[in-house]
Amino acid sequence: MLLTKGSKGPAKKTPAYRWRATDIKPSEDLKWNEENVDNADLSNTVIELFELFFDPVVIDLICTESVRYAAFKGNHNFSVTPGELKTFIAILIVSGYCSVPRRRMYWSGDEDVRNEAIVNGMKTDRFDEIMKYFHLTDNSNLDVTDKFSKVRPLFSLMNECFQKYFQQKENLSVDESMIQYFGRHSAKQFIKGKPIRYGYKIWILTTSLGYAINLIPYQSTATVKAVPGLGMAGQVVLDLVTALPQNCFHVTFDNLFSSLALAEELTRRGLACTGTVRANRTGDCPILDTKTMEKKARGSYDFKADNEKVMIMTRWNDNNVVTLLSNKKGVEPLGTASRWSKKEGQRVAVPQPNVVKHYNSTMGGVDRLNQNVGLYRCGINSKK
Ranges for the PiggyBac transposable element-derived protein domain (predicted)? Predict the structure, then answer.
């Protein structure tokens, strides 16, 4: 481009953010309101709690579709009552904490494996028959674009129940979970380094205690419609939080999901967020780079905030350099973390920004859920 006398030249691109070396200022729009909390009374027995989720609608769905599937397979005499189905599910639950090598051993005459509760609840042939025809949807009306169409009705009903009986707490977390499966299926995943490496991947929104609020099964590009700038993972977070009641929840997630665009959109929706963020997703933020931070003492940190857009980027040097993005938690109040010092031969206190402490204390909801499920994982499997 040729410049003539008096010309101002090409216009400079206005930066998307105005980063300053200052801590974030709390926004009243992102303040948790305890008065908006309306939790259902759950002072119930264990069986009553179970029936809140496996309510008559869910039980009727399974009974109806199982009978339909039996007829499809040529057995027009098959029927199952709600009581029988609940007993069937109870046996599956028992198999999670009283495991035997083969399921028929529960009905064995040998005292060391026989389970009297199961024997008295249902005969083995009846259990096998219900297992054979157990079904959740009409095979003649499947959505061919949905890899989870055979279980989608149950997913939908469970999500409704999860949200209905959700005991509202401010801090929530989003992460992925795995349902173990070794058979063949187009949605099966392999994730190296996970406790469960083979199976179905599920995106989950949970409380810090591991209560599931919303589930989205992963099925590659068909999972959600990715929005430019957010990617699939960012859009998953937005889809999960749409189920939340009106209040300023604080959602925590890891660097798979985090981006400036996602944080901006959550702020616009009145939701607080905190997450680790990858070095290539920090945009134009002039925060000290990772290599420079690695040379500094453990506990060193750098931060930049844009208080107009309610955003702060914090980089902290611990065993590794970690970068966090938040629209609510900043550096202050500065805390400490106990770390082993090889040089001093003892544990020492190192500075820790408040945003790091918040992330560490609230990110484990899905891990807690996985732990709870793992303790009672069903020991009776089907090849269907």
Answer: 48-383
